[in-house]
Amino acid sequence: MDKKYQTIIGMEIHVELKTNSKMFCGCxxxxxxxxxxxxxxxxxxxxxxxxxxxxxxxxxxxxIALGIALGCxxxxxxxxxxxxxxxxxxxxxxxxxQYDMPFCxxxxxxxxxxxxxxxxxxxxxxxxxxxxxKVNGRNVSLIDFNRSGVPLVEIVTEPEIYxxxxxxxxxxxLRQIVRYLDISDCDxxxxxxxxxxxxxxxxxxxxxxxxxxxxxxxxxxxxxxDDKILELPNYKVELKNINSFRFLERGIEYEIERxxxxxxxxxxxxxxxRGFNAExxxxxxxxxxxxxxxxxYFPDPDLPPININDKWFSEIESQMxxxxxxxxxxxxxxxxxxxxxxxxxxxxxxxxxxxxxxxxEAVKAKLPVDKLINLLIHKKIKTELFEIDQSQIIxxxxxxxxxxxxxxxxxxxxxxxxxxxxxxxxxxYKAGKGNAINFLVGxxxxxxxxxxxxxxxxxxxxxxx
Amino acid sequence: MDLLGxxxxxxSEKLKDGAFSCKELIxxxxxIIKINDKKINAFLTLNxxxxxxxxDEFDNLIKNDKEIxxxxxxxxxxMGVKDLYTTRGIITTAGSKIIKDYNPPFNATVIxxxxxxxxxxxxxxxxxxxxxxxxxxxxxxxxxxxxxxxxRVPGGSSSxxxxxxxxxxxxxxxxxxxxxxxxxxxxxxxxxxxxxxxGRVSRYGVIAMAxxxxxxxxxxxxxYDNAKVLEVTAGVDPxxxxxxxxxxxxxxxxxxxxxxxxxxxxxxxxxxxxxxxxINISIRESLKVFEKLGATIEEITLPHTDFAMAxxxxxxxxxxxxxxxxxxxVRYGGPRELFGAEAKRRIMxxxxxxxxxYYDAYYLKAxxxxxxxxxxxxxxxxxxxxxxxxxxxxLPFKIGEKVxxxxxMYLSDIFLCPTNLAGIPGLNVPSGFAxxxxxxxxxxxxxxxxxxxxxxxxxxxxxxxxxxxxxQFKNG
Amino acid sequence: MTKKTLTRDDILHxxxxxxxTLNENEIELFKQQLSSVIEYIxxxxxxxxxxxxxxxxxxxxxxVLREDKIxxxxxxxxxxxxxxxxxxxxxxxxxxAILTE
Lengths: 465, 476, 101
Fold this sequence. Notes:
The complex is a heterotrimer of chains A (465), B (476) and C (101).
Chain A: E1 5-16, E2 55-56, H1 57-69, E3 73-74, E4 77-78, E5 81-84, E6 94-97, E7 104-111, E8 114-125, E9 129-135, E10 138-144, E11 151-157, H2 164-181, E12 193-203, H3 220-223, E13 237-242, H4 245-264, E14 272-277, E15 282-288, E16 298-299, E17 306-307, H5 310-318, H6 324-335, H7 339-343, H8 349-364, H9 369-377, H10 390-401, H11 408-421, H12 423-430, H13 436-448, H14 454-464
Parallel strand pairs in A: 13-14
Antiparallel strand pairs in A: 1-11, 1-12, 3-7, 4-17, 5-6, 5-16, 7-8, 8-11, 9-10, 12-13, 14-15
Chain B: H1 8-17, H2 22-40, E1 43-46, H3 48-64, H4 68-71, E2 78-82, H5 109-116, E3 120-125, H6 159-166, E4 172-177, H7 183-188, E5 192-195, E6 215-220, H8 223-233, E7 263-267, H9 277-292, E8 296-300, H10 305-323, H11 341-354, H12 360-383, E9 386-390, H13 406-410, H14 417-422, E10 426-434, E11 437-444, H15 450-464
Parallel strand pairs in B: 2-3, 2-4, 7-8, 7-9
Antiparallel strand pairs in B: 1-3, 4-6, 5-6, 5-10, 9-11, 10-11
Chain C: H1 8-17, H2 24-41, E1 65-66, H3 78-82, E2 88-89, E3 92-96
Antiparallel strand pairs in C: 2-3
Protein name (chain C): Aspartyl/glutamyl-tRNA(Asn/Gln) amidotransferase subunit C
Family (chain C): Belongs to the GatC family.
Keywords (chain C): ATP-binding, Ligase, Nucleotide-binding, Protein biosynthesis, Transferase
């Protein structure tokens, strides 16, 4: 008999913060736009002997702000630790990270399949960038340290994601929250946001199988607490360095199939790190973990601990924008517009604030906000948003939707002229070509040099031809 | 010019008076080095051209600017720099082979401050590689010898700086003190050597041994000279987040003030079996001088002393293993195979004490014992103003005597490393001689009590004048 | 957890953690020398540290932070950054290929 499997996914997402300077030195934080490799480096981020780190205050504040946005608890007393491993892109032989006292813990992100628990949000430094290529016929790895020491936030979830679709939704949602806070560009292609999924399949015991409204297995209560009936598998496969949501979804799908086949044979998939080859649509082994890594964490003696007192915490909180969920709720209430409509229009909280003012001015002018949004989305109003005064948008909208007052017989006169000038269009219309009527509408309006209500004009053309 | 008999104070006056020029002074240093250093091995790299050029520049300044000695309090003073200090454009090896040709693109904060104050770097001095040692024998180069007896060690790890000042190659030698490394060579070479409070002097640009221990100090012939240099090096540095924003005293101002009523504590755990009786006698003689100066002496206890070495040899290797991770041969230096035996031992020991399953029993346990040791000192300083103890349990030992027994070597630091665990300052002052060899005495104070230590040491030095006894290059 | 002495496997394991390769002589020598150090440091287990906070730092400082400002004072040119390496290619550091697909 076929066993039933439940996909179990935990995610680790890295986001580079867009501070002006790096995490532990004053070098410019702009690795993607550097003219040349290794020009934004100093003794600190190059790991020269004797150099010492000093932490960037803004990066800490932004990490805490993200934690607050994710509903996390905040460790008021925190510290940085050293995480040791050897890799040529890691200049000091250790990464400054956070081990047992992350700035934030215990948060959650809502998805349409249910909430996902955020285990922790911590701050660390990015590594240099490795470039693999051939030099003089030999395979080599080249290293650019412009990225070394860029502040990097890691957001870790509990293994409570149960499908590739949910994983994608979670990752997108997280990006939306981060961008709204305007603390990262989340440029996935360049590596400003990096996705990692730990995937495994659990065997569902016969008695399980509680389903939600959408017909998906709802296992979250089953994995936790005393009455949990689903055990976490004894292996997990790390799918790493995914740079798009689509690849995340496809990569997970591929993994589920691959792991299922192995399990069906009565074997256990190897615990390893795998990458995703987008061209072939497959995952491939990158590194087998022979033994659990031993990072030898200990508190970094160069960096005094961080004590986030109440005053500092309130300062951080007061600088945060209205929560995204609150914003959407308020917009529904005040402007009768739902989040799907507006999500397409903005990313950052500053943009949201700008829109908020636009919508309230539209309401004051007694204009329908939903129609306004529709025109904005379809770029009917050809104006750059966010950089101009909202009144200009209102004016353009009015111009776009206002029709000129004309009597029927006046319009019919213009139609006659247009019909005479465009015999082919008339013939097409009579032959039943649907879009010929649109052409005639345009011709009439050009002839009249007036704006005429579309449906009324179509009706008149049809009766005249 | 008798450089061996001169101090920073004398030299500054003579430069001001025009008794000799900076150039003459530096030439004299270089010639003393050329005559003697083959025997002593105090220097790894000489900065001959750079030093002479600087001397010319300063001689011009002296001619043209009457105020220059006020602007540059250490103008023209020749300095030997421990090779753990990063010096821009001067090879910096840390006493190791792995970075034997590393040419730093920047100066350590302390070096920058000292250069601004007018010192002239004559060369980089030999040391136990990475600061790992108490004798100078762990250098990856030729070991430094003690100018008082060439068959004996000069103390380490700042072995070259100690020997260089002692034999007159320069007037100040920089050192780093992680567990003993300024005070022990000062003690073995008849010098004044300061281990400042942790956080008093910037570590930026000084190659890290154990980051929460490394104290950036220096050695001079006299207390005045030592205080004068600290006035330049001390203070908060935005590039070192562990420097403490506490006012830097004008340390030389208090020298000569009386110490009547000063309470001196003798830690009973430091006067025990294993302490060479000749050293015990010398320290007891010195204590009589303090009593004559009006101080009172009482025995105190530092109950966790017996565990200090063990805590030290867990925490320090843990940090060492981490700090030496950056030497991977990618951006500078050669492959890790080039590490010497002592560096390898400490990397392994530290990797072990931090490793999964052992962290709690070793690193964490030792970090807790460190708290207890710090509290021991805090309790002692509730009763007394300063502590006095021998610097080393033994006289300078024979070269080769302890090299095959790392544990015995580690125990040379037994009276010194507790202050590093506690982060408090200690000052070595010459206590006298036994068998023709220097005996060091350390004065220990509470955090940021450098001013007091200098005041106490200065009066003692004025009474005893041991610094005037010069090395004889015995057994050379 | 503490050990009385270190085995050959312990030595190999911790050498690997420290990214060191040892020859046979070193393995034997370090096994003896480090075992005697371990034996010595094990005496810490005698100390009662109940309710004692660990000290990883000694200054008592907290929140020593920098403002988020670019400071080019220490920034190196790529020539300076690469001046001490023995292996480079144009403006990049070069190492043996470390990842293959």
